[in-house]
């Protein structure tokens, strides 16, 4: 797959660049006696490790589905990105500990112009490398590359603080290296925690992108027989693999033969246009507008949606005139604090309007709207 080749190629570039930078910085740090520069070199090695993890994660995520994991291994990419976040967090904590040690037991560094030039060049390289890796990550939708790019940019901030401390020391004789190191370490720890939070959220399962869900529903609703598409539920099994289900509303007089054709056509069209596999399509039968059920549905929809701001829509309406029963799904926003109370209020209002019916309201989550 071209996407995996791009991720691996970008990671290899990151490994080579970081190993070279680590060697240069370690040499400069040992000569100048700067613990900050030596720690900076260690950070470059951690970046190289991040790229190795990205490669391994991409390889594993690309494995074909098997009996134990029939939907593939795509989520390993999120796990590898979380591991990289932990590395960033560890680097920040280590840097903070060393900086505190230097504050308690200060050592006067000895900087040379050649050393500072090398550090300045390293900063430029890390900024360019981090930007490049992150941009590629965004382009191919790789959380691991995005995390590696962020890590590289954070390292450039560490290097910049080291260079700033060196210049201040040369000009004024005041050594701020340890204090600046502590401040930057806290920034890195914060960034590591945020990266870890975001990647754990992806592993847990996030709400699907609104633009994607809207486009898929638009595609489904483009078929003449489809009166509405609801309850679109997409499961993410990797950055480029979605599997889902949807409810569609169709006229009550549609034939079984046409319904079977329609489901196949919808699944094919959604996959071709959006790369999403629709495994299940459930059916709601929509009553005609002129029927008693159609008029009642429109009346209820106007009253409920107009009065309750957290009711987003109703669908799947069914009127059982023989048994005097009304059934429908009510989509409730996540902003609603007490869903059951809202349901009871709506039922009370409906009974006041049409007491001859019993009401069965199924509460739906606002998964994609």
Question: Could you explain the architecture of this structure?
Answer:
The protein is elongated. It has 10 helices and 6 strands; from the N terminus they run H-H-H-H-H-H-H-E-E-H-E-H-E-E-H-E. The model has no long low-confidence stretch (mean pLDDT 82). A 3-stranded mixed sheet has the order 1-2-3, with helices on one face. A 3-stranded mixed sheet has the order 4-5-6, covered by helices on one side. By secondary structure, it is α/β, with parallel strands linked by helices. A hairpin with a 5-residue loop joins strand 1 and strand 2.
List the helices and strands and how they pair.
Elements: H1 2-32, H2 35-61, H3 76-104, H4 113-140, H5 143-172, H6 177-204, H7 210-221, E1 228-236, E2 242-251, H8 256-274, E3 276-286, H9 292-307, E4 311-320, E5 325-332, H10 339-353, E6 358-365
Parallel strand pairs: 2-3, 5-6
Antiparallel strand pairs: 1-2, 4-5
Helix pairs in contact: 1-2, 1-4, 2-3, 2-5, 3-5, 3-6, 4-5, 5-6, 7-8
Summarize the structure.
The protein is an alpha/beta fold. It has 10 helices and 6 strands, in the order αααααααββαβαββαβ.
What's the helix count? 10
Structural class: alpha/beta
Percent in helix: 55-70%
Output the helix-strand order.
Answer: HHHHHHHEEHEHEEHE
Question: What is the overall shape?
Answer: elongated
Instruction: Going across the biggest sheet, name each strand in turn.
Output: 1-2-3
- What is the rounded distance between the termini? 32 Å
Low-confidence stretches: none
């Amino acid at each position: 797959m071209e996407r995996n080749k791009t991720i691996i190629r970008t990671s290899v570039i990151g490994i080579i660049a970081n190993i070279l930078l680590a060697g240069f910085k370690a040499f400069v740090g040992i000569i100048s006696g700067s613990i900050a520069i030596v720690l900076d070199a260690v950070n470059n090695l951690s970046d190289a490790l991040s790229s190795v993890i990205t490669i391994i994660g991409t390889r594993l995520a690309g494995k074909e589905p098997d009996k134990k994991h029939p939907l593939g291994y795509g989520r390993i990419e999120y796990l590898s990105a979380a591991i990289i976040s932990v590395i960033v967090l560890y680097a920040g904590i280590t840097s903070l500990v060393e900086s505190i040690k230097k504050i308690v037991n200060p050592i006067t560094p000895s900087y040379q112009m050649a050393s500072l030039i090398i550090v300045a060049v390293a900063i430029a390289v890390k900024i360019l490398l981090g930007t490049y890796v992150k941009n590629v990550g965004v382009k191919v939708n790789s959380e691991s590359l995005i995390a590696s790019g962020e890590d590289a940019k954070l390292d450039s901030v560490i290097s910049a603080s080291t260079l700033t401390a060196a210049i201040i020391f040369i000009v004024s004789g005041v050594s701020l290296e340890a204090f600046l190191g502590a401040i930057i370490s806290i920034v890195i720890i914060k960034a590591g925690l945020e990266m870890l939070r975001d990647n754990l959220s992806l592993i847990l399962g996030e709400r699907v992108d609104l633009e994607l869900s809207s486009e898929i529903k638009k595609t489904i609703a483009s078929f003449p027989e489809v009166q509405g598409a609801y309850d679109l539920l997409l499961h993410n099994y990797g950055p480029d693999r979605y599997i889902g289900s949807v409810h569609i509303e169709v006229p009550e007089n549609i034939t079984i033969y046409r319904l079977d054709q329609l489901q196949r056509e919808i699944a094919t069209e959604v996959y071709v246009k959006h790369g999403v596999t629709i495994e299940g399509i459930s059916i709601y039968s929509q009553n005609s507008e002129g029927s008693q059920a159609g008029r009642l549905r429109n009346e209820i929809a106007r009253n409920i949606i107009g009065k309750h701001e957290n009711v987003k829509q109703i669908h799947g309406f069914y009127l059982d005139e023989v048994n005097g029963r009304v059934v429908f799904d009510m989509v409730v926003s996540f902003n609603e604090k007490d869903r059951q109370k809202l349901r009871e209020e709506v039922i009370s209002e409906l009974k006041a309007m049409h007491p001859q019916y019993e009401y069965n309201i199924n509460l739906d989550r606002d998964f994609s709207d």
